[in-house]
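USER:
Working in pairs, take the chain set out below, taking as long as you need, and write a paragraph about the fold.
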Amino acid sequence: MSPTRTRRVCPPRYANRLFCLTAGAYIAGLFGRMSYAAVMADLIAQEGLGKPQAGLIGTMFFVVYGVCQLLSGFLGDRISPKKLIFTGIIGSAVLNLGMGLSGASYPVMLTLWTLNGVFQSMLWSPAARVFSEMIPPTHRKRACANGAATYPIATILTYLFASALLHFTGWRVDFLLSSLIMLISAAFFWIRMSFYERETEQRGEIEEITLTQVENAAQGSLIRTLIVSGTLLTVLGAVSLGLLRDGIQSWMPTYLDECFSLGASLSVALSIVLPVFNLIGVYLSKWIAGRFIRNELAGTACFMAVAGGALAVLCLTGMDNAVVSLVLMTLSSTALVGANLMIINLMPIHFGAIGRASSVTGIFNSACYLGSALSSYGIGFFSERWGWTAAMAFLLVFAVITLLTSLSGIRRWGKYRRNI
């Protein structure tokens, strides 16, 4: 007889509101992460930071974020998502306030932004648990897929915000106002999430889960879970995916400014093209996945082939034209959104039945942001030492790695997916 388990889920009438609350809190929290990348070009231009120095601040953030994602993933399966998300937003808000008051002291900024990685790591894994386990089954897959829209939405908002502030004030005000937004959002999230927790406890539907033989076999250690499901090498692919995703977004303003002399404010404004198309890419990827993709790793391979192709053309063209470069980087970034949707948003749903949604999300997200750490320093190093063509070739290598790791796991993941 197959083992079963039960849990309470949010009443269906509150499902969309619970999703919006959690997604909104995550977007507000991302103000505390993206604020630095949005003003990095201005810091380099106005405060005399070298690109490797500026990149090292981002690298240390991503290293700490990636390592702490593992802990956050484990805690996310055991501690209330409300407590983790609230703590993460409040802590990040305080550190953003410190960045705005730092006086451009490099050691202080490096220390504060490194600590910010600890608090930022508390946001996505518990949010993914809300989407995968607290939201009713009828709304669950849509919630997990729509969760992918939070990142590009936050990027659009933070870059518009930063572009306006850089034009009228300066980078310090961006950190200060980001902190204020986060503090207000954290208070609202705590109050409303407490209400939904009470409603779930008192009126929530009981979901009964019958584990399949494959799911039951995957209940051991996380390594065993990844081996049984065929996703062990996906962790390496996620490292490369994170390097590409955040590398392109973080360095785009600096790239445009240095290659085409557009100025910091205009470069940041033009960089908003990426998240706008990324947002479109989320819903286009959802449609493609719903119509044509029955295996997330196969879908990842297809998206990575497009992203890698665009980067290859960019390297070959020599990046002589601003419009062509912007189009190719936008195409690559949009395809990466599809790959990110497959690995970070859709694959972890399948581990919710064995209570591993947050843990698996933590592992994949941790790997992604370890890649982001490599990109933050690596792109700065390659571009300063050998130029931007070398930096784009650096990105292309990792696109090929993600493509190969995805292809290697398609068969086993397909079998696991069919069995659940």
